[in-house]
């Protein structure tokens, strides 16, 4: 019986250590949108730099943004100007104090650039100071409209990972637990 207790204690310790080793952060989920203005002197057809008039406001927030204090029409955001041609992101592109969210721009694609409109899409990495939230790739879009005071709409959307990674310690723990169980079953079957 003494050997049985040692085996159970070893299996329990392996289970606890395996579960602790496989704990990891989760991707940030949700959408966030902003509204504001940019420099009204810009000629959108020839501009190479987008100059934001800070602060901008959050117009919509879902998922982890809303769960961590980012409220629609209540939260201010700070934007850094960025260069579009040649591309120079000047990161972080935007930040929001609740939740410590920051968006680092990594790529852009200009889809429309006329005297009246500028539309850019791309991707970047979103981080947060909230424990348990991992840096996550987000898609983003930006549009400026020259009607009146140069209104801006900007949004970021979580880009889901196609093939989630299975943590290796968890896989090994399952296999090890199964082998211990088979060993115990065989021992007591005799």
Could you walk me through the main structural features you see in this protein, from its secondary elements to its overall organization?
With 190 residues, the protein is of the alpha+beta class. It has a domain at 31-158. Helix content is 24%, strand content 41%. The chain contains 3 helices and 13 strands; from the N terminus they run αββββαβββββββββα. An 8-stranded antiparallel β-barrel has the order 2-4-5-8-9-10-12-13. A 3-stranded antiparallel beta sheet has the order 3-6-7, with no helix packed on it. A two-stranded parallel sheet has the order 1-11. Strand 6 and strand 7 (87-88) form a beta hairpin. Helix 1 runs antiparallel to helix 3 (168-189). The longest helix has 22 residues, at 168-189. 21% of the residues are buried. The model has no long low-confidence stretch (mean pLDDT 77).
């Amino acid at each position: 019986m003494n050997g049985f207790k040692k085996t159970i204690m070893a299996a329990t310790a392996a289970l606890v250590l395996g579960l602790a080793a496989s704990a990891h952060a989760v991707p940030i989920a949700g959408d966030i949108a902003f509204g504001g203005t940019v420099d009204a002197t810009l000629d959108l057809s020839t501009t190479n730099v987008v100059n934001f008039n800070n602060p901008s406001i959050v117009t919509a927030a879902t998922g982890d943004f809303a769960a961590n204090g980012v409220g629609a029409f209540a939260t201010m955001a700070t934007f850094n100007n960025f260069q579009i041609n040649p591309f120079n992101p000047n990161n972080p592109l935007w930040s929001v104090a609740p939740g410590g969210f920051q968006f680092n721009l990594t790529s852009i694609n200009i889809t429309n650039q006329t005297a009246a409109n500028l539309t850019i899409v791309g991707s970047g990495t979103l981080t947060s100071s909230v424990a348990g939230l991992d840096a996550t790739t987000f898609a983003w879009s930006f549009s400026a409209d020259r009607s009146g005071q140069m209104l801006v709409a900007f949004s970021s959307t979580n880009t889901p990972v196609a093939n989630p990674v299975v943590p290796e310690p968890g896989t090994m723990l399952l296999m090890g637990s199964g082998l211990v169980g088979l060993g115990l079953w065989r021992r007591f079957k005799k």
